Structures are given as structure tokens and as C-alpha cells.
Amino acid sequence: MWLAALWLRAVCLECSKNKIIVQDIFIPIIYLFSAVLFILGLRQLSHPRTAPKGNNTAAIGMLLAVIATLLNNQILDFQTIFIGIVIGSAIGAVLAKRVEMTSMPQLVALFNGFGGSASLLVAAAEFYKGEPLLVFTLATITLSVLIGAVTFSGSLVAFAKLQGLLRGTPIKFSGQHSINGILAGVVVLLAVYAVLDPAQASNAVLAIIVISLLLGILFVIPIGGADMPVVIAMLNSFSGLAACATGFVIQNDALIISGSLVGASGIILTDIMCKGMNRTIWNVLFAGVGSAAEASPLEVDPMKTVKSYEPEDTVVIFENAKQIVIVPGYGLAVAQAQHMVHELQELLEGKGVIVKYAIHPVAGRMPGHMNVLLAEANVPYDSLYDLDQINPEFEETDVTLVIGANDVVNPAARHDVNSPIFGMPILDVDKSQTVFVLKRSMNPGFAGIENELFYKDNTIMIFGDAKDTVSKLVSELK
Amino acid sequence: MNVQLLVEIYVFVLAVFVGFEVISKIPPTLHTPLMSGSNAISGITIIGALLAAGSLPGTLSATLGLIAIILAMINVVGGFMVTGRMLRMFKK
């Protein structure tokens, strides 16, 4: 590290004698080096053991990119830059230190928004420099402000929904899709207009920004709380694509490469989330699943009854089990029960019971949310299993404990062609000997779908707050 | 179409493929840190923000650049820090 720094210093000194080498060769090469570090960093993220190193690698890449930029001889005003860096870093550091792991989805939504708006502003700054622009540059500027603005306002709405500032249920009105379509059309026309008549481009760009901001809001408000993982993944992708578009505006390869990496990442995650729900991206974005109007009154068969136990009555079953699988859902995060659950795991393991966790791809409010919450509670990552790994094991499982999950364990998805979730990959918890479902009440899940798991002979409901119930179990087992 | 633009498009397309290759190997357990980390990487737009804020002092562009620096730095510093915080919690 030190050697590298010394070498860098020597090279810098050498180069300061020759400005052209610094500006046209040295800086772009550092940018390339940064991009390589980003790729290596992401590669190290493929295993929890190497992942912290990967994060550092990427951070060093970013630091190098900033230093290289400051060597650019176009930069005259270092004071403004210094102020900006200090303010931004301070805010970022405070947010990163303070955030609770349950609120991670909100924070990521907010950061997506900041990234998008930064790209929007950079493109706008390039435009307002007042220098004559190439047609292509003008076209990329319109694209960049469009993506940046949609990312910004869309992310803020997602943030407000996740934070509970806005209702999580879809906000729908008639003609919504046509309005969005018209607005998108207007943006395209304005972009064409700006490119054809650069003299009038100023107003057109301003109009594009305003309409795009509106479009971002309208685009996210009809999407329900439980579909948020898809939206966040998509906005993540957008924030990358915005940076990428800005890279074309200022003709910088570092932005293009890094932006595409992030764009690709977001697209992959969006795809995984959609597959986890057996829905297409169009269905998630435009169907508004989970709205009050749609949740028709449930046809509950009066003959169907549920068995409900008190936590105290279940202890024997836990103690005699060989293998227990815990299925955490968003309800676990809401109840902040992760630490208690880990205590339960340790107690049971002390009694010789094998404890595993089954994580559904769309559990929680963002991809991998449950894994982070459980990691926070010191649950080792090798006791977490994903859908494909755990499903064959349920038949040999004595007890499955469902905590705050609903639709992802509904067997109707396997056989009931009339169920709205038919075809969605689910955790086959009903195949285990006994299923305990921890739930506040019999209220159905977000989509208003009756869960037939609750009525099965081998299912026992334990009503109450998840954290209370688990802590009762823990004290009984002690 | 000038040569530089063509090269940029090459870079873009190849980078997308590299992105798909690298990211698809990341396990679901690390998807949240992946999102916050890639978010920090999208803060690379800081390069453009620095150039905009520093090169034309006193203009509208410089003001927009300053705001962009603040937003991008929140993204960069906050993103890498929170990712590091999360990743340190993952234990075997």
C-alpha cells in the first residue's frame, strides 16, 4: 500500500512537469483502475468471508477516482468542492451510523434517490454551461435528466411508503396508466424538440425535468408495500443507468462502466424478485396488487377451524424435535423479534435440536433483508437456507416455526389455479410434521388471500406479538 | 458518429456483460449489501459533480455541481459505510 502511494507520488511529480500526460493519459488510466477495483470489489462480494474486503476495494476505487478528478486542470475552485465534500460526507456518515437494520430498505431507497438526482444535476450543469452542444450530447442530456429525475422522485415516494409517511397500500385512480403514458410521450417529444431546435432547448430541458419528476411520483404511488423489493431493485438499477447516461454526457468512461455495473446489478435483482413472486415486472408495476378495492371479501368455510395453542403448551413438541426450521417474514422485522429468535435457536441447539432458517426470496422489504436482520442478531449465515435448498428438507422436519410470513407459505400457490398467487414458488412448510404459525390475528396477508395452511391438521396457530411469543417460548424452554 | 462515441458504446456494452457475469455470482444472503454497495458505486457521478462545481466558478453550473457533490458524497460515504457495517455482521 505504502509502496503504491510512494510510486503514485513519484509519478505525480514527474507528470506535473508535463500537463498533457496528466490530463490525457494519467487521469483516464486512474479512472480505468477505479473501474477495475469496482469489478474486483463486486467479485469479492460473492462470499460473506471476502465481502468486507470487497467493499473496501470498491471504496478505494472511488477514492482514486475522486483524487484523479481533482488533478484535472479545468478545476479552479477547490473551496466550493471542499465544502461540498465535507457536508455530503458528514450527512452520509451520520445516516450510515444511525440507521437501524429494519430500516435498511428506506435508507437504500433514499440513497438511490440521491444518486439519481446527482446524475440529473451533473447533466443539467453540463447543459447550462452554455457551450454549443453536439446533437448527440443534447440527446444524452435529455435521457440523463429523465432517468435521474424519475429515480429521484420515485425513490422519495418509495422511501415515504417504507418509512410509513405515506400509506403502503397502492394509490390508484382511473386513467392512471393513460396519464403516465401521455406524460412519457410528452417527454419524448420535448427531447426531440430540444435536439432539433437547440436554441429553444433550455425550456425543453426544464420541462423534461419537471415532467420526469412527476412521472417518478406517479410511477411508484400505485405500487403496494409488499411489492417494494421489486421497486427498490429497479430504482437501484435506474440510479446506475442515470450515472451511465451522465457518463455519455460528460464523455467519461468511469461513469459509463460503473453505471452499467450498477444497472446490471439492479436488473438481476429485479428479475430475481419477480421470479420469487411468479409475476412479470409489468404486473408488479401496473397491476397495483394489494389495493383495498381488490381484496374481495374472503369466502371462509364455516366448517374450517383453526387450532390455537398458548406458547406454554408447545414446549414439549419443541423439545422432542430433531430438526426445526424457522421461516421469518416481514412480521419478524416489524416485531423486532430477530434477537429473541436467535436466543431460541441457541437454546434449542443446546438441547441437541438442529435449527435451520428458510429464507424466501421476497421475504422482507428488499432483497436479502431477512439475512441482514438475522446477521445483526448474530445468526450464523450458514444456518440460513434459500428456497431450493430447504424445500426438500421439510418432509424430514419435525417442527416448522413460521414467524410473520404468510403468502410465501400458502400451499394454495401449488395447486389452486384460482388463487391469485398460483404458481408462486413457496416454502413447503405444510410437509413438515407440525407447523406453528406465529401471527397477530387471523387477518389475511397483504394481498387479502386466505391462507389454507392455517386450516391444515398439522398446523397450530399461536396468536400474539411475535417477540412476546418467542420470549415466552424461550423462558419455558430454559 | 465520431470515434470516441463509438468507443464509449463499446465500453458500455462490454461493461453491462461484465456486470451480469459478476453480479449473478453473488448469493442471495448478500443481496442487501450488494444493493447498498452498488448504490455507493453509482455515486461515481461525483466525478462529473466535481468538474461541474470546480471548473466555472460563480455560474449556475457550479451551483448545480455543488449540490450534486453533496448528494453524490452522501451516496458514496453513506453507501460504503453502511455496507461495511452490514458485512461485518455476517458471521459463520
Give the topology, please.
The complex is a heterodimer of chains A (478) and B (92).
Chain A: H1 2-16, H2 19-44, H3 51-70, H4 78-98, H5 104-128, H6 135-163, H7 176-196, H8 201-220, H9 228-249, H10 253-276, H11 281-287, H12 315-319, E1 323-328, H13 330-335, H14 338-350, E2 354-359, H15 369-376, E3 384-386, H16 387-390, E4 399-403, H17 412-415, E5 434-439, E6 459-463, H18 466-477
Parallel strand pairs in A: 1-2, 1-4, 2-3, 4-5, 5-6
Helix pairs in contact in A: 2-3, 2-10, 5-6, 5-9, 6-7, 6-8, 6-9, 7-8, 9-10, 14-18
Chain B: H1 3-23, H2 31-42, H3 46-55, H4 60-89
Descriptive notes:
Chain B: InterPro entries: NADP_transhyd_a_C. Chain B: It comes from hydrothermal vent metagenome. The complex is a heterodimer of chains A (478) and B (92). With 478 residues, chain A is of the alpha/beta class. Chain A folds into three domains: 1-93; 104-291, no CATH class; 311-477, 3-Layer(aba) Sandwich (Rossmann fold), CATH 3.40.50.1220. Chain A has 18 helices and six strands. Chain A has a six-stranded parallel β-sheet. Chain A is globular. Chain B is mainly alpha-helical. Chain B has a domain at 36-92. Chain B is 79% helix and 0% strand. In chain B, helix 2 (31-42) runs antiparallel to helix 4 and helix 3 runs antiparallel to helix 4. The model of chain B has no long low-confidence stretch (mean pLDDT 94). The interface between A and B is large, with 115 and 79 residues.
Provide a brief overview of the structure:
The complex is a heterodimer of chains A (478) and B (92). By secondary structure, chain A is an alpha/beta fold.
**N-to-C CA distance of chain A:** 51 Å
Uncertain residue segments of chain A: 292-297
Radius of gyration of chain A from the CA trace? 26 Å
What's the number of helices of chain B? 4
Principal-axes geometry of chain A comes out as globular
Oligomer: heterodimer
Quick one: biggest sheet of chain B? none
Compute the average pLDDT of chain B: 94
Average pLDDT rating of chain A: 90
Q: Largest protein interface?
A: A-B, 115 and 79 residues
What is Rg of chain B?
A: 17 Å
Q: Which range best describes the helical content of chain A: under 10%, 10-25%, 25-40%, 40-55%, 55-70% or over 70%? A: 55-70%
Number of strands of chain B: 0
C-alpha termini separation of chain B: 53 Å
Fraction of residues in β-strands of chain A = 5-15%
Strands of the widest sheet of chain A, in order across it, are 3-2-1-4-5-6
